[in-house]
Design brief:
The protein has helices at about 10-15, 55-65, 75-80, 100-110, 125-140, 145-160, 185-195, 200-205, 230-235, 250-255, 255-260, 270, 290-300; strands at about 5, 25, 45, 70-75, 85-90, 115-120, 170-175, 180, 240, 275-280, 315-320. By secondary structure, the protein is an alpha/beta fold. The chain folds into 2 domains: about 5-145, Nitrogenase molybdenum iron protein domain (Rossmann fold); about 145-320, 3-Layer(aba) Sandwich (Rossmann fold). Strand 1, helix 1 and strand 2 (about 25) form a beta-alpha-beta unit. The chain is globular, with a radius of gyration of 20 Å.
Length: about 325
């Protein structure tokens, strides 16, 4: 009998993809999809107050990380009661969810169960596929649903692969608003699959190598901090705002900080009306099955004449400037 505890939203969505939602007995405080998991006991909590502006949140997290390995805590007492057979967690980002060290420490305190800990650390799309297969194997089921996800990606690729690279829009994805952070890991890959390209900068032109670090994110690498000077110099065709942990309404509110910068109104994307707000919490920043939805959102934004998936209004909206 499986008793699964998932401590990261993307893993919870993998469990659902595999048809094992009924076996999920516990979740993290951030796991909220699919909706039926919300009645499961919560096993984690943040060590900071998540309310406040993006700058205030950044400062609180930074202060915590100077003295702790994680900004979240695991409730070992709840885990003891749940008696899990499997715990899904991550080792990708200490800001996104509880750390693997915290989970292992909590598991070491358990007396009524010895769960298998499965740690996920995807940085690119194919590693998400591998995680789905690995979780399925650990839980003793077939990776149902994976083929459909891959087919949806292939459907987008089949259209965008025919697009002239020189005519693709230059897309800057913003993962945090204050201070500015570009989007790394799988995001540059999704931009290319959706028919866009990263903005050109003097540094990337001089380097001449596609795998050199890019100020707007490098596939498979952590998201980089971004200066306003670099954003203004690159002057992208499209700006996609996708803050980690923010839904569409919160993103809309926080994006007003951007408009207060003196260089905002001079950006090409602002002047042409190509600034887009997204639900970065439900999509983009969860390396699970809905990265495919995220790809479709980007494709819909960048090439509306080719793609209409119906995400507008719930997954993204055009920013009114």
């Amino acid at each position: 009998m499986r008793r699964i505890v998932s401590l990261i939203p993307s893993a919870t969505e993998i469990v659902a993809l595999l048809g094992l939602t009924d076996d999920l007995v516990g979740r993290s405080h951030e796991c909220d999809y699919p909706p039926e998991v919300c009645d499961r006991p919560v096993c984690t909590a943040p060590k900071f107050n998540p309310a406040g502006s993006s700058l205030e949140t950044h400062q609180r997290v930074t202060d915590l990380l100077q003295s702790a390995l994680s900004v979240y805590r695991v409730d070992a007492a709840v885990l003891e009661q749940l008696r899990p057979t499997h715990i899904l967690t991550q080792a990708q980002c200490e800001v996104c969810a509880v750390s693997l060290v915290d989970v292992e420490t909590a598991v070491a305190q358990l007396t009524h169960s010895q769960p298998q800990v499965i740690s996920l650390q995807p940085t690119v799309l194919h590693e998400v596929w591998q995680d789905i297969q690995r979780v399925a194997q650990a839980l003793g089921v077939e990776p149902n649903g994976l083929a459909d996800l891959q087919q949806r990606v292939a459907a987008c690729r089949s259209v965008t692969a025919l697009m002239d690279w020189s005519n693709r829009p230059a897309v800057a994805c913003i993962e945090w608003i204050d201070p500015l952070m570009a989007a790394g890991n799988w995001m540059p890959e999704l931009v290319e699959l959706a028919g866009g390209k990263l903005p050109q900068t003097a540094a990337t032109q001089a380097a001449g190598q596609p795998h050199d670090p890019h100020p707007f994110g490098t596939t498979g690498k952590h998201s980089p901090w971004l200066t306003w000077e670099a954003l203004q110099a690159a002057d992208p065709d499209v700006l996609v705002i996708l803050p980690c942990g923010y839904d569409l309404n919160r993103t809309r509110q926080e994006a007003q900080v951007l408009t207060q910068h003196p260089g905002w109104s001079q950006l090409k994307a602002v002047q042409t009306g190509h600034v887009y707000l997204t639900d970065g919490n439900q999509y983009f920043n969860r390396p699970g099955p809905r990265l495919v939805d995220s790809l479709e959102i980007l494709a819909e934004i960048l090439h509306p004449n080719h793609f209409q998936f119906g995400y507008e209004g719930k997954g993204w909206e055009r920013m009114v400037t």
